[in-house]
Amino acid sequence: MYAVQLAIVVTRETKASGAGTLEEKTMSINSFDNYQLTWRPDKRALKRPVYVALVTAMKDAIEKGELLPGTKLPPQRELADFLDVNLSTITKAYKLSEERGLTFGVVGKGTFVAQNATESIIIAKTASADVIDLGLVSAFDACNKMMVPVIQAVAGQSNLPELLNYDAPTGLPAHKRAGRMYLERFGITDVKDENMAIVSGGQNAVTVTLLGLFRPGDRIAVDFFTYANFIEIAKMARLKLVPILGDDEGMLADDLAAAASQGLAGVYLMPEGANPTGVRISGARREALAQVVRDNNLILIEDDYEGFLKLGLTPLPKMYTLAPEHCVYLCSMTKPLAVGLRIAYIVFAPQYRSQLMDALMNINMKTSAIDSEFVARAIIDGTAQRISQAKINLVEQSNAAFDEIFPEPEASAVDNRQLFRWVEIHDTGMTGREVEQHGLNNGLRFYHSDRFLVGAESAKKYIRVSLSSASTMNELTTGLTRLRQLLIAGGYYG
């Protein structure tokens, strides 16, 4: 059904050269009385600037449940006619709604309400004695005690006062030397001091990079399912994330190239184990993706949070070594050592130094030199390597326990070094939040795939199951057994 268009003639008297004349003007009026729009904002409530007021009204409608996730918004021209505003006003409103994470656009199909338009998808620890946590990806806290001797040794050092001032905001030279020693294990070599910084953990590294190198409205390519906290940080920075499809070898290089031809500023990758899918990018795919990055002058963010777990497996080149002039390499020490030690190393191309340093100073002022001293000492005396090996042993045991309880192909993984598993489930018609709540009601926390979507919908549904947050192996196996029973009983699995 189309809006009814009426034509009327307006006659008015004008004056020209002192003589009275009549001027006729034909005006077009669209009647929407019998026309179904998926969203009919109250035009009387719109204040200037109208495009901003429209986005506010859209957010309110989403929060009230009047606009549901996946709803296709009215075509821009029809909404402009309905509100009697310029088409450019609607175009600006839709663009702003995408920047704020409320909507996503599909070329040739229209604009849709995002899956997580107004809900926070940040993943954080929530204490509850009644719930087994299979949601948060932690790092085997039982290993934390291995850091205690290091901390005690640092506490007895005579140079403690020097670690409590504003000196060396990007990291003390001795701490950077230790960091370079650690990174050499991953093939990151010949790093100059001026092209390296120490920041306050992996998430802080992401924040510094996004705010330093990108501007509001910039487009960054990500995996179709990607790290939930990255989505939230990008939303805060008003960056547009562009989901790129992938396969068992990682993000599709041809699809990245196609997106780059439409305008991209950068790409975010987790080559050693994508969060949440666990996919490890193959060597050939890394080469192909690096070529796209070089050809299109993209900023490549390589998040190597899980690299320490892959030591001993088939070595694959870091993206940084394939496109060093375009790369910002992030290596967090929270997972390898202890999540309470908020330290990460950033290695970057010289062209990015000035912008990253400005962002680092504005956000952090200075990373904790005490934390950095703990980490540096652990690297130098071998504690870091011992803790990493202990965690590799635990992650292999955890994956073996998972495979015993979930032997089906729908729950398989590429290797046994995963901090979490990605399990395909049946679509029961429930929303992702409802599925998660069903788990919580039964004493289990896990996360639904909707939480990791960048706006676009997915025909397939999954849950991410953490293997690294349970206090003991017994608690993990108990949780996994109960999870399997819950999924089967609820019609999600089997």
UniProtKB/TrEMBL annotation:
InterPro entries: Aminotransferase_I/II_large (IPR004839), HTH_trans_reg/aminotransferase (IPR051446), PyrdxlP-dep_Trfase (IPR015424), PyrdxlP-dep_Trfase_major (IPR015421), PyrdxlP-dep_Trfase_small (IPR015422), Tscrpt_reg_HTH_GntR (IPR000524), WH-like_DNA-bd_sf (IPR036388), WH_DNA-bd_sf (IPR036390). Keywords: Aminotransferase, DNA-binding, Pyridoxal phosphate, Transcription, Transcription regulation, Transferase. Residues 48-116 form the HTH gntR-type domain. SMART domains: HTH_GNTR. GO terms for molecular function: DNA binding; DNA-binding transcription factor activity; pyridoxal phosphate binding; transaminase activity. Pfam families: Aminotran_1_2 (PF00155), GntR (PF00392). In the C-terminal section; belongs to the class-I pyridoxal-phosphate-dependent aminotransferase family. PANTHER family: HTH-TYPE TRANSCRIPTIONAL REGULATORY PROTEIN GABR (PTHR46577:SF1). This is GntR family transcriptional regulator. It comes from Lacticaseibacillus sharpeae JCM 1186 = DSM 20505.
